[in-house]
Amino acid sequence: MLIPKGALVVSCQARADNPLHGPVHMSAMAQAAEAGGAGGIRANGAEDVAAIRAVTRLPVIGIAKVWDDRFPVYITPGFEQAARVALAGAHIIGLDATARPATASRWSA
Questions:
Q1: For residues 73 and 96, what is the distance between their CA atoms, to the nearest angstrom?
Q2: In this structure, are residues 99 and 71 in contact, taking their beta carbons and an 8 Å threshold?
Q3: pLDDT tens-digit profile of 64-95?
Q4: CA dist 72 to 12, 46, 66, Å?
Q5: Is 68 left (phi over 0), alpha (psi -120 to 50) or beta?
Q6: Measured CA distances, 62 to 35, 48, 70, 84 (Å)
Q7: What does the DSSP assignment read for 5-71?
Q8: How far apart are CA 94 and CA 16, in angstroms?
Q9: Cα–Cα distance for residue pair 17/65, rounded to 1 Å
Q10: Which of 26, 28, 65, 91 has its CA 20 to 30 A from that of 16?
């Protein structure tokens, strides 16, 4: 599924310490974004991706943020995280493909 050129992609994600954290709130945010004319959604984590896919027809860019103080890469740092987001229904997987050091399990299955 393609995101039209020039379309607005709305980030529907909230950290665990945010009152809007979680699939219920993120799926509602995605519905609001779709109603407002968004062309795609960016979501963090398999649970949020699955919830958003259930309520919208927009393309979903899925990521999986993994924080580790030893490594600067935290956006989908490995295959395992990418696979979970893909299985949850993301149309596109966002990942950090730079040469910066990532977790030791970056390419493990």
A1: 7
A2: no
A3: 998 878 877 788 888 899 999 999 999 999 98
A4: 23, 22, 10
A5: beta
A6: 20, 9, 24, 10
A7: TT--EEEE---TTSTT-SHHHHHHHHHHHHHTT-SEEEEESHHHHHHHHHH--S-EEEE-B---TT-
A8: 20
A9: 14
A10: 91
Would you place residue 19 in the very low, low, confident or very high pLDDT band (cuts 50, 70, 90)? Answer: very high
Task: Give 107's pLDDT tier (boundaries 50, 70, 90).
Answer: very low
The pLDDT tens digits of the residues spanning 39-54 come to 999 999 999 999 999 9
Helix, strand, or coil (residue 75): strand
